[in-house]
Design goal:
A hairpin with a 4-residue loop joins strand 10 and strand 11. The chain is built from twelve helices and 16 strands. The N and C termini lie far apart (about 60 Å). It is elongated and about 110 Å long. It folds into two domains: about 100 residues, Serine-tRNA synthetase, tRNA binding domain (Helix Hairpins); about 300 residues, BirA Bifunctional Protein, domain 2 (2-Layer Sandwich). The protein is an alpha+beta fold.
Length: about 425
């Protein structure tokens, strides 16, 4: 959500942001409703002032005048009462459109229609060169008996997953390593729920527009979040924090649930796109200072890169274009990790800076040194998401005999083991 005053004063910039982000926004209707609401509020204030003035005259009036003034007060009260539903209706209609207004992208963001026009910034690490025929992650899991897709599908339906033995330990090891790493960077660890109220999705910006991606709890006002960003973004909703508490930096661990509506037949093999997974999310709530926020953006991006480097996984950094960055983002980069079986990089991390767009929706504010109340700025980035990260991990670290090499940074989380699995001919 943008400041309404900014929208009034800069309609051209807002219209351009909607255009390049490919968002269908009726800005003319929004501005019309804004004018109508201002007129209704002015009429309401005028009638309220008139009623108050009229009430002051009643005690001093003659009996004949008093009856007339009392009736006038009743008439004004009735008019105000009749005006209230119209006022509420216009307020609701205006808020509905305000929730669709996109954040203005940073000047550095490339123009583009979709992810095919994202821009690669750099590559890190060298994809492995195998002197044997490598297997994909599904074949590797099957080879070691580390998964049971048929049985879990009978229990939970398609696109569920179940890891066994060393693969289950590996998933937990990677998550634990990511949490320890982020704690060492000064992030406070959170273990949080995925059960949230619908308004938290509005606050984070996933609603309106992403309703088809969310699982709903029948008969309750609760839904399942697809990232810890959703609940954490509402922890301080409506509060005014002291500036010296900022920035708040969290590494939030939670289960995550996504219906993945519209992705049937796409990226559904094995562990790539499952309905339920585990995720460590970096989330930052900080002062309204864009220069400092852009530095923080680089810092949380750097955290994700260091995690991939410690896991010895080749990756590339991609800047998302306007058509692939989402309504609320000022700036967005993806980290895509090399998947040998496909000969391409797949997105494993997403880093976003949203300015005060989420804060205005959620009411995230702080009192600055100037004594004024400001909306905060927010950022988020994946720490690690499992089991997706296992796809490049297993494939990049496989050996000719089928075993999986464990990078040095992860060995202490696996009892010092350097290899997983049993050698096979």
């Amino acid at each position: 959500m943008l400041d309404l005053k900014f929208i009034r004063e800069h309609p051209g910039e807002v219209r351009r942001a909607a255009e390049v982000k490919r968002i269908d926004l009726d800005l003319d209707e929004l501005l019309r409703l804004d004018r109508e609401l201002l007129d209704l509020k002015q009429r309401t204030e005028t009638m309220q002032a008139e009623r108050n003035q009229n009430a002051k005259l009643v005690p001093k009036a003659s009996p004949e005048e008093r009856a007339h003034l009392i009736q006038k007060g009743k008439d004004l009260g009735e008019s105000l009462k009749n005006l209230e539903p119209e006022l509420r209706a216009v307020e609701n209609a205006l808020r509905h459109l305000l929730l669709q207004v996109p954040q203005l992208p940073h000047p550095s963001v490339p123009l583009g229609r979709d992810d095919s026009e994202n821009v690669e910034l750099r590559r890190e690490g060298i994809p492995p060169s195998f002197d044997f025929v490598p297997l994909d992650h599904v074949a590797l899991l099957e080879r070691h008996g580390w998964a049971d897709p048929e049985r879990v599908a009978r229990v939970s339906g398609s696109r569920s997953y179940l890891l066994k033995g060393e693969a289950a330990r590996l998933e937990l090891a990677i998550i634990s390593f990511a949490l320890d790493f982020l704690a060492a960077q000064g992030f406070e660890l959170l273990s949080t729920t995925a059960l949230v109220r619908p308004e938290t999705f509005v606050g984070s910006g996933h609603f309106p527009g992403g309703e088809d991606q969310v699982y709903k709890i029948e008969g309750q006002e609760l839904m399942l979040a697809g990232t810890a960003e959703v609940p954490v973004n509402s922890l301080y909703a409506g509060e005014i924090l002291a500036e010296d508490l900022l920035p708040l930096r969290y590494a939030a661990y939670s289960s995550a649930f996504r219906s993945e509506a519209g992705s049937a037949g796409r990226d559904v093999r094995g562990l790539i796109r499952v309905h339920e997974f585990k995720k460590v999310e970096q989330y930052v709530l900080m002062q309204a200072n864009e220069a400092a926020a852009l530095e923080m953006f680089q810092a949380i991006l750097g955290n994700a890169e260091e995690l991939l480097q410690a896991l010895e996984l080749p990756y590339r950094v991609v800047q998302n274009c306007t058509g692939d960055m989402g309504a609320g983002k000022v700036l967005m980069y993806d980290l895509e990790t090399w998947v040998p079986s496909e000969g391409l990089y797949r997105e494993t991390h997403s880093c976003s800076y949203l300015g005060d767009w989420q804060a205005r929706r959620t009411g995230l504010r702080y009192k600055g040194a100037d004594g004024k109340v400001h909306y905060a700025h927010t950022l988020n980035n994946t720490g690690i998401a499992a089991p997706r990260i296992l796809v490049p991990f297993l494939e990049n670290h496989q050996m000719a005999d089928g075993r999986i090499r464990v990078p040095a940074a992860l060995r202490s989380y696996l009892g010092g083991r350097e290899l997983l699995g049993k050698a096979q001919p």
